[in-house]
Amino acid sequence: MDKLRKHIEAIIAISDEEFEFVKPFFTYKRVKKHQYLTQEGDTVTFEYLILSGVFRMFYLDNDGKEYIVQFAGENWWMADYQAYFKDKKATLNIVCMEDAEVLCLTLHGRETLSVESHKMEHFFRVKLTNGYVALQRRIISLLSSSPQQRYEEFGRLYPHLMQRIPKKYIAEYLGVSRETLSRLYSNSKV
Amino acid sequence: MDKLRKHIEAIIAISDEEFEFVKPFFTYKRVKKHQYLTQEGDTVTFEYLILSGVFRMFYLDNDGKEYIVQFAGENWWMADYQAYFKDKKATLNIVCMEDAEVLCLTLHGRETLSVESHKMEHFFRVKLTNGYVALQRRIISLLSSSPQQRYEEFGRLYPHLMQRIPKKYIAEYLGVSRETLSRLYSNSKV
């Protein structure tokens, strides 16, 4: 729970007493590589704060083709938010790519924390703001960028993920073939 | 300002006194068709709550090709949020497609309202949550859907916009040619 406090205090200072109030809303969970946190069709009870490990979130079409919406590593929050916030069945899958530890928070917990604590509502608003900006940037990138630009942007924004994620999935995330990605890799090393 | 109060009260009830505190943070502006609220390279001082009219937000690449990130009508909030929140120059353009009225809010105003009023922080968090879910959905749609599916989803989510926006721009938003869009239109009327 030390990591949780540090994570919150990166945004807003809280007292010991305030943190004692926050703690019980989170439950700790270990996740093994290849294990799913969410599968399409599930009821989405939790969102997850990642303490260690890496996940990928993807959409699977009717032909079994996988489309990666997002990767997430330490200190990222992750959920099929449409399902989580709107009480719908999951349309996305979240799978563990490296043994991981996460903290789980229910929507009821999130809303109670926000109502009871102005500081926690502030914390969640700031996190959402950053998430919103990242998604707006991803949309622009998907609409307009060349594979080369998308590759460079990914490397610039997420250098630590770049080294830990198999190339196959990076290619999928960028929407390019394995061959194109290999070419981009070797170009960038020249 | 009646519209503003109604818009806030769709999320959370506020007293007359609370509304009197909120009001001065917003400034009213009329916008003519074809007028820009933001152009690439601008400093982004405001986000906008649209009271009437329709806008489109787009990215322009080096070849002058336009990529539509979003349309927005009544009761939507709109800004180049990366620039607004992160104090960067705009990379997006926002242009008016129908004579409009908007309310303008600075980042300083937004943050002050949130710090001073737990209710307003709640209001902004809920709006961001909805916005975040909409962007996550748009990413999935861009990654995986066929033109037919994207067209149907757009019609289902935004029926009022569908009728007011020239087909040319809807085709651009969906990432299809004018010819494909015409075919989708006629198919859906059979």
Cα radius of gyration of chain A in angstroms:
18 Å
Which regions of chain A contain 5 or more consecutive residues with pLDDT less than 50?
none
CATH class of the largest domain in chain A: Mainly Beta
CATH superfamily of the largest domain in chain A: Jelly Rolls
Structural category of chain A is alpha+beta
- State the helix count of chain A: 9
| Helix percentage of chain A | 40-55%
Total strands of chain A: the figure is 6
Biggest sheet descriptor of chain A: 6 strands, antiparallel
Mean pLDDT across the residues of chain A is 92
Q: List the helices and strands of chain A in order.
A: HHEEEEEHEHHHHHH
Biggest interface between chains:
A-B, 34 and 34 residues
Q: Which fold does the CATH topology of the largest domain in chain A refer to? A: Jelly Rolls
Shape of chain A: globular
How far apart lie the N and C ends of chain A? 44 Å
Pfam families (chains A, B): cNMP_binding (PF00027)
Domain Cyclic nucleotide-binding (chains A, B): 29-106
Protein name (chains A, B): Crp/Fnr family transcriptional regulator
